[in-house]
Design a protein that fits this description.
The complex is a heterodimer of chains A (about 60) and B (about 240). Chain A has one domain. Chain A is built from one helix and no strands. Chain A is about 65% helix and about 0% strand. Chain B contains seven helices and no strands. The longest helix of chain B has about 45 residues. The interface between A and B is large, with 36 and 44 residues.
Chain lengths: ~60, ~240
């Protein structure tokens, strides 16, 4: 790898912003998935069932 | 499994459960190769190492438009074919497209400052991409503002199709107007003007980011289907309590 030259801070910041945003997207989607599954489990535990009779958390 | 089977949310969820680990793995491998190749790419004879910003800026810029294109097809699916997963696909893609557009704007600014001497210029390319970003934010606000997903879907579909007019404006802005932004270097008449030393890492990164979009989109669609399942169970619970 060559030196990043006089504008290294711009290059490093670009890659850091991209990495942070991609990680934030992955984290947000993973947390949202857990949150929805937990809400479905709570609803099932309270006695509400789907019309099909299948488990709400079934995938 | 046929295409029509995917209209069934339960079968779609079953498909995503099977393909998501493979997609995530392939995305990680491609992006690792892409970042390694970007790090090893030679300096540009004019821009020096600053040209490395291209490897993250260009894929995000392409995806900012591609995602709106996917949302436009989904909008047709909602309005014309009434496909049950079309509005799920459109809604799930919106924040991901907004994130890619934001990254295209930020990395473009960070590339522009050392090369042009300014972070921002109100020229046709940058302004039209900023408008695209604002349209993504508008759509996200619309999805949040309307409680009923089917009503929100129709309004969002119309707004998405109207907004699609901006895509050719972004693409050809550098040809139609005199802009600070450089003209197309990869997808252009007469073939690419990029040397293989830059083109190959760029294409690997573009493929990696495209797979990243597919992975995140399928995962976000899965979440949206579960969210709607929660909503319908909550409505059943409310009606049982009222009875």
């Amino acid at each position: 790898m060559t030196s990043l030259g006089p504008h290294a801070s711009f290059i490093v910041t670009s890659y850091a912003v991209v990495a942070a945003m991609v990680l934030a997207l992955i984290g947000w989607i993973a947390i949202d998935y857990r949150h929805q599954k937990a809400r479905l489990r709570d609803l099932e535990a309270s006695g509400v069932t789907r019309r099909s009779g299948r488990q709400a958390t079934e995938i | 499994m046929t295409l029509i089977d995917l209209a069934n949310p339960t079968k779609f969820l079953s498909l995503t459960a099977r393909v998501l680990p493979w997609l995530a793995g392939a995305t990680a491998i491609l992006l690792l190769i892409g970042f390694y190749q970007a790090a090893m790419a030679p300096d540009d004879y004019q821009q020096g190492a600053t040209a490395k910003i291209m490897f993250v800026h260009v894929p995000n810029a392409w995806l900012s438009m591609f995602v709106w294109g996917v949302m436009s097809i989904a909008a047709l699916g909602t309005l014309v074919w009434r496909h049950p997963l079309a509005d799920v696909a459109a809604k799930a893609a919106t924040p991901i497209g907004a994130a890619f557009t934001f990254l295209a704007l930020v990395t473009g600014s960070l590339w522009g400052r050392p090369m042009w001497g300014t972070y921002w210029e109100w020229d046709a390319r940058m302004t039209s991409v900023l408008i695209l970003f604002l349209m993504y934010l508008g759509l996200m606000a619309l999805w949040r503002a309307v409680d009923d997903p089917s009503r929100a879907a129709r309004a969002a579909a119309v707004l998405t199709l109207v907004g699609a007019i901006n895509l050719p404006i972004i693409k050809f802005s550098v040809d139609w107007w005199n802009t600070l932004h450089q003209p197309a270097a990869v997808l252009r008449m007469g073939g690419t003007s990029l040397d293989k030393a830059f083109l190959i890492p760029l294409l690997v990164m573009a493929l990696g980011f495209s797979l990243l979009f597919v992975t995140l989109h399928l995962a976000a669609m899965r979440n949206e289907i579960l969210r709607r399942r929660v909503r319908s169970l909550q409505m059943m619970q409310a009606s049982q309590q009222a009875a």
